[in-house]
Amino acid sequence: MSRTSPGAWILPYSCVVGQDDLKLALELNHVAPGIGGVLIAGQRGTAKSTIVRAFALMMHGELPVTLPINATDDRVVGGWQLDALMRGETREQPGLLEEAHDKGLLYVDEVNLLDDHVVNIILDVVSTGVLSVQREGLASAKQLAFGLVGTMNPEEGGLRPQLLDRFGLMVTAADLDTDARHRMIRTVLTFEEERTRGTSEWLAEAERHNGVVRDRLEAARERFPQVEVPDDILRLCAEAAGQLDAVGQRGEIVATQAARALAALDGVLRVQPRHLLQALPLALRHRRPEAAHGGTFDWGRDDHARIKDLFDAG
Amino acid sequence: MTTATPALEPSDDARRLECAFRCAALDPALAGVLLFDLEPRLIEPVSRVFAAVLGGPAGPPAARIPLGAATRDEELWCRSRLERRPDGIAFTVGPSPLVDGAAPPPLAVVADLASLSVAGMRAAVQLIGADLVSVEQPGLRIADRPRTRWLALCRSEDAGRVTPHLLDRFAVRLAVPGLRTVPDAGPTDAPLPHDTFATTTDRAVTRVHEILGPGAGPRRSLALARIARALATLGGHREVTAQHCEEAARLIGLRVTEPTPADDRADSEAPGPRLPPLPRPGDIGRRGGRPAKRRRSEEKLPLLASGPAEGVGPAPGATLGMPYPEDEAMALREFMPLRNPWQRRSGPTSTRGAVVGTRRARDLRDLALVRTVREAAVHQRIRGNREFTVAPVDLHSNLRAPAPERLLTLLLDHTCRGDWDWQDALTPFLQWAYTSRAAIHVVEVGGADAADELRAESFAARGVLDPRVLAALYRPKGRATPLAHGIEQAGQVLRQAFRRQGSALAEAWLVVVTDGRGNVPLRASHTGRLHGPVAVQGIEDSLTAAASFAAMDRGRLNVAVVDTARRPYGDLPFALADTLGATVVEGRDSHGG
Predict the structure, then answer these.
(1) Other CB atoms closer than 10 Å to residue B451's CB: what's the count?
(2) Of the candidates B200, B218, B381, which has its C-beta nearest A87's C-beta?
(3) ipTM for this prediction
């Protein structure tokens, strides 16, 4: 049995108040899918899931392929259609990973609450690029590639370093100041009130704003392949990663991609140091040794000071 | 103060409850109702009222779904049925009532939120007040807005043990320790309005912030604003005002502070949401000039009472019970409580814990028979067998919660503590108990609040996070020290554990914190009366009781005596340790540190 709500009640993306870093990370990941996904950490009620769903609705007109924490392993890797089996027929049912390959992205809500065996399956697939299923009469091996977007509340535990590293970018949801909080409540309530009306000019206007954002992102995505990364930017990136003791090299690659995407969003065809400076926290905050071993994901003034000199000198 | 909203009697908990239920029924974002300190006997009638509200005056009451410590994943999401048909066993899968789209929305009832199973807590986090829930189970895919309403009960003192991630989902919270009776009859009010919500004004949002203060999380602010909106809507008003916010605050027991001087903005003035300003919702209905006419207070539709309008609740400043007791709770909380428990791969208790689910079988031990038959039923037609057959791939075994394999028995002599903080000395043992998920048994002697100062007292707990353990560590001291009785009780506890759990008890520790100066003979503890002078009888009886430990299974039992370094008679703990066969652990140094 399958039931999907025809109209999900998700706040339009352009109406989400604040959380600019979260939005930026998702937008960069859309402009440059090679970034490989986004991990969003934040306290309760910071619109993490809302932003992800609203972004997917705005860009693709449908909700993202979602892996909930209640998913069983046969739904993750695929299996047989149950009702067809009961009729004596064999029909394969693609798993969520295969669907994510088709649509380019897998969204995992409460990713830190996933069962370990599901995490192992995801890690196997994203690291090898192959989903191998040998069970229940199924024998298949498929090439899969998709970006991972996850949301989590760090109060409920962290992620294994291997999984953490698979998220290209990471952002933490910020607390809103009083004014922003006021606007947030007003916007959410207005949205809930407007959607109960037959026709809503407010919602239509929000959709028009979404269209503007969508056009800007699609234009940047088209521009992205032409954006050049000068050699001194690459050197700067390597030095910054060294200063921050970043674990592995994936961080530098992702930071460069993110800087390119930023330049594409900026409408320029050459990455500048300011793009890299803005991209580094997103790409490296979860690749520092302390983050990999259960420490904080915060990016503070000290972290900024460690790399600021490099950019000032440049 | 007069009100244009339903007249509430906050002292009347039954009416507050019913009003809260109507708010929750009206707005799916208020789906979670959490009641603190409700008398257990009232769970059934209270949930019946909520179900009746959900069903509406004309319809049947909503179905109630009890959830508790034994709730498992399989029953939360899917409902599977096995039927015998002429051509064999048929098997169907459908959504469980929790995620079924049928009307009226069902009511999940959690009698004790603090003891809800991990599967239940995870479901609650995914469902309560969510925009969308995704279900991915065999034969079942759902992506829909959850409609189930939740009624959960919790004791205020237990609130600190529940993860804030879960508590935060409950938008409507009421402390109702004074509730004694619940009306039998269901509500007879008019049906809930389903067309549109009242419009929230800017001033109302400001009032929400004033009431909650700057530290409130976004969910609490939204919850209060939504309750205010629900009250306004139920009262037939078109706009939510600051007064509705105050009423909402009083409904859930929040202190209502005096408002700051009103600014010049009109109630309905609203800044548009970010990026370039969008039309204000209030503008849409007023296009072309005059603002919509406000309903006058005389036109109000009372929700709960038909009497004359009266002030909402008690005088400003009064509270009805804190709706957020977790903010002040001191209880220890389980680490990562929303993660499924780790399943031990081996060990004697892997087949002894409570069943929390099923998994594919790795061997033939502890098979989950119904799940196995269900799996087999699915494949019967494909296999083409003439008789019902179970293949190895169908086999499933039970997934069980870890059962305690370890036991920590603490014997605390409160009379030896004085100003010494013995927690440092005990921390290694408590850490061991926590990391190994050991059960704990605390035996106390010499506490000031003991029911009988001549006797030891004891209690058993599932783990060190039980709030009673922390309380026991800081009990004030009394006069008598029935140490012999305490040692005797500790021995009984350990003997019972080894006898009942058998080989399942892999390891046990007895940790004794005492200066050894027992001053109550064992006979006095047994009879409850002192006979003549005590002299050294209390000490000798302690050593006699300790001698019985030599006969226990010392391969699995470890004993430690924490030296309190009290003078004189500083050698008494060592003598006791010798008799117990214990190691001596340095507690307080000889300087009293």
Answers:
(1) 7
(2) B381
(3) 0.90
